[in-house]
């Protein structure tokens, strides 16, 4: 059950709070309505800073308890005046409408004034009756009773109210266990332990966790929210753009920080199935009918899934998996925040204020309060319902707490068990476990009349494993230069080797390329960036003029006369080409003779989106620092394979941490695990609807805080191969969808050029190099 505070319609700001416990009066009689009163304790404090949410006064001292019934007002949509009616008159009025009423000594009658009743809108039972009193210099509302008969707007007969003054001792007695002093001191102890743990050497990865905003559900609920949800619950799905059909998989993940989430290993073994996670208020997103629906959710791209190496289904052990995202959730999104993790001993072993499990049913979220069971009690409850669960299948067991009116609910794998603790001045949710059902499917729980316990993977033993599996620096060992491009990569980074290539059809045109000086890198200098890496000088790196109306794009020098780029960017270009090795190096411009578009290029297609730039004069590598990249057209390279994870992309990295302003540098980065399924690019680049059989999808560079990355259309991707005993750079593709000054990684389409090499050679004018000779071949023959 939840309580909604602060508004009476959907247009007012409200706060929805789960109920921690309900205390029903021990002498309540449902037939006579005697002692019809209950006390509800909320799971989190009400937000009384909201002007629409204020507590009513209670007359807790004798002098605040008047013996008369003056100044009574009943609260419906607006306060209405009511008059006290004595017992004799009250019974007489009910007798006139053929009803007999019996008043308990702790009940009384009151009736709305006839002139006000036409403006009164009746509400259900429990409507508060207030008594206005002067306290200090202000008039205040004090609670005097509750409507029991739902007649608060009836001017014909009075309604019967329970007298709250008669129950104040019982109310105060049952509130005594919520002492703010005890919780405050316990919270301070937890904070001190957390601060001490952060200072210990070797705990740098704890910086990944922000304990100031984790585990708070109330900001998420302070909305006119038709579909409330825990803000750390996410929905896993295969294709971009979550649908109701995707939700039927009941695949749930729990956000634990800006880049990672947890899920049950049992549903994560097919890693290619789960490429996206949608976080936020999915129910409100589906119900939204305006143009601001995107504010409710954010779809995250899955970068990697790490299943615990010791996971087993039979017996069910180590059922936990870590999910890494490519990007971080928007920190300003009020519908998304991580759950807290219990890193300190005091967090793990302190008595929680409550144990709550949250599960999903399509886009609805349901919460239940649980109590932890011992292994023996757990097995006994299963046995009483004809089920056998082995001891080794039990990591953590809990059953419905003894709270009134809690119905059983079907819990999906990975549903979080949350321990509520006082921390940082707030009651926060700390992850305690992830649900699993050993040796059976979720459908076995569908008989909700069978009150079986729930089983969870205890999260406490896996905190070190989680930290070991995370990285503080998202880029890891991707940045490189000519000195370390071939450095070994971790095994899970290794991609699939490409198929062997067919020989080039026009082999005679190989003479247009100088394989003695192509693709060699000049000496590089180590970067002083705290993030590591190498400044790379690319002598074949060029671009269009910055004032080109269609945007800047990159071209790659492939011979002294020709550059290669994307047709979509170059189709209307006529200004000089700019060559520059580093972002701040002096540039040199070269006028162009013509642009040669692929004859089958069509707007919107990814296939055939390629163009040649023919220069008006050649780039003389003997007189300039520029030299071309190599093309993989020799027989040796056509019969060898290369590894996709060893490919290198080129872009500009800007860092605000290295001094005033931006410090930009051109960097090469190994692809590693950035080579992803094509669906990531399809989601990001919806305008690219044409054919894409020659396209691949690669994520841009992962970034640290304060960094920005630019990788424009036409940017090269290359491999480093040993040719003639020298490591050389061979062009393998070009970017078709660039990113400009991004502070989050984004997927980029790349066109693989292998199937276009014959077209490139056929389009090149083999007579151009004759223009540079100082003599005519018709007059002089030269023999070497």
From TrEMBL:
Pfam families from the UniProt entry: Trypsin
GO molecular function, one term: serine-type endopeptidase activity
One GO-annotated biological process of the protein: proteolysis
SMART domains: Tryp_SPc
Domain of life: Eukaryota
Coiled-coil ranges (or none): none
UniProt cross-references to Gene3D superfamilies, sorted A to Z: Trypsin-like serine proteases
Domain Peptidase S1: 1-176, 478-765
Matching PANTHER family: CLIP DOMAIN-CONTAINING SERINE PROTEASE (PTHR24260:SF139), PTHR24260
Recorded family membership: Belongs to the peptidase S1 family. CLIP subfamily.
This protein's name: Peptidase S1 domain-containing protein
Source organism (scientific name): Anopheles dirus
């Amino acid at each position: 059950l939840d309580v909604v505070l602060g508004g009476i319609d959907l247009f007012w700001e409200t706060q929805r709070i789960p109920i921690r416990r309900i205390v029903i009066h021990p002498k309540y009689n449902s037939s006579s309505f005697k002692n019809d009163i209950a006390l509800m304790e909320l799971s989190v404090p009400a937000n009384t800073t909201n002007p629409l949410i204020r507590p009513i006064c209670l007359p807790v001292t004798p002098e605040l308890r008047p013996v008369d019934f003056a100044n009574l007002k009943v609260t419906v949509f607006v306060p209405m005046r009511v008059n006290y009616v004595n017992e004799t008159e009250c019974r007489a009025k009910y007798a006139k409408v053929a009803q007999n009423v019996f008043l308990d000594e702790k009940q009384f009658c009151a009736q709305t004034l006839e002139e006000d009743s036409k403006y009164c809108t009746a509400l259900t039972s429990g409507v508060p009756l207030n008594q206005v009193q002067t306290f200090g210099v202000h008039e205040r509302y004090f609670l005097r009773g509750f409507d029991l008969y739902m007649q608060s707007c009836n001017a014909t007969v009075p309604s019967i109210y329970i007298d709250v003054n008669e129950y104040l001792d019982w109310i105060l007695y049952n509130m005594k266990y919520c002492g703010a002093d005890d919780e405050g001191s316990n919270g301070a102890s937890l904070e001190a332990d957390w601060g001490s743990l952060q200072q210990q050497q070797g705990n740098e990865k704890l910086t990944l966790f922000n304990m100031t905003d984790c585990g708070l559900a109330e900001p998420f609920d302070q909305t006119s929210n038709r579909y409330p949800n825990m803000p750390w619950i996410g929905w896993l799905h295969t294709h971009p753009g979550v649908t109701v059909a995707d939700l039927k998989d009941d695949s749930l993940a729990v956000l634990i920080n800006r880049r990672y989430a947890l899920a049950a290993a049992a549903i994560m073994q097919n890693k290619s199935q789960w490429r996206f996670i949608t976080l936020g208020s999915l129910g409100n997103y589906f119900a939204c009918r305006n143009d601001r629906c995107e504010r409710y959710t954010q779809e995250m791209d899955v970068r990697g899934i790490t299943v615990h190496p010791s996971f087993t289904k039979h017996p069910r052990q180590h059922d936990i998996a870590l999910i890494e995202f490519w990007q971080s959730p928007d920190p300003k999104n009020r519908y998304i925040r991580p759950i807290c993790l219990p890193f300190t001993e005091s967090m793990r072993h302190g008595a929680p204020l409550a144990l709550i499990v949250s599960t999903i049913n399509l886009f609805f979220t349901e919460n239940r309060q649980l109590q932890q069971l011992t292994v023996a009690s757990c097995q006994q409850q299963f046995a009483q319902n004809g089920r056998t669960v082995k001891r080794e299948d039990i990591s953590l067991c809990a059953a419905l707490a003894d709270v009134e009116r809690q119905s059983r609910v079907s819990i999906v794998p990975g549903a979080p068990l949350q321990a509520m603790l006082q921390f940082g001045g707030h009651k926060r949710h700390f992850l305690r476990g992830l649900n699993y059902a050993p040796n059976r499917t979720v459908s076995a729980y569908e008989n909700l009349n069978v009150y079986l316990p729930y089983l969870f993977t205890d999260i406490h033993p896996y905190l070190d494993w989680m930290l070991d599996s995370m990285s503080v620096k998202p880029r890891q060992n991707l940045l490189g230069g000519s000195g370390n491009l071939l450095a070994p990569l971790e095994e899970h980074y290794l991609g699939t080797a490409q198929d062997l290539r067919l020989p080039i059809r026009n082999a005679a045109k190989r003479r247009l390329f100088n394989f003695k000086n192509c693709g060699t890198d000049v000496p590089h200098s180590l970067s002083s960036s705290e993030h590591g890496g190498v400044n790379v000088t690319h002598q074949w790196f060029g671009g269009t003029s910055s004032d080109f109306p269609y945007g800047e794009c990159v071209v790659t020098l492939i011979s002294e006369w020709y550059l290669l780029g994307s047709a979509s960017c170059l189709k209307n270009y006529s200004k000089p080409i700019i060559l520059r090795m580093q972002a701040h190096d002096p540039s040199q411009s070269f006028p162009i003779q013509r642009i040669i578009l692929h004859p089958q290029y069509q707007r919107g297609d990814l296939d055939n989106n390629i163009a040649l730039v023919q220069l008006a004069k050649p780039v003389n590598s003997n007189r300039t620092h520029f030299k071309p990249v190599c093309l993989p057209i020799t027989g040796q390279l056509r019969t060898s394979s290369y590894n996709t994870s060893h490919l290198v992309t080129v872009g500009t990295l800007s860092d605000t941490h290295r001094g005033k302003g931006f410090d930009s540098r051109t960097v090469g980065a190994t692809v590693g695990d950035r080579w992803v399924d094509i669906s990531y690019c399809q989601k990001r680049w919806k305008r690219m609807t044409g054919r894409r059989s020659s396209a691949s999808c690669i994520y841009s560079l992962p970034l640290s805080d304060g960094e920005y990355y630019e990788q424009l259309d036409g940017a090269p991707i290359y491999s480093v191969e040993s040719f003639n005993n020298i490591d050389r750079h061979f062009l393998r593709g070009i970017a078709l969808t660039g990113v400009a000054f991004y502070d989050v990684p984004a997927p980029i389409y790349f066109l693989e050029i292998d199937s276009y090499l014959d077209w490139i050679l056929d389009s090149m004018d083999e007579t151009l190099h004759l223009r540079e000779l100082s003599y005519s071949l018709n007059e002089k023959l030269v023999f070497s």
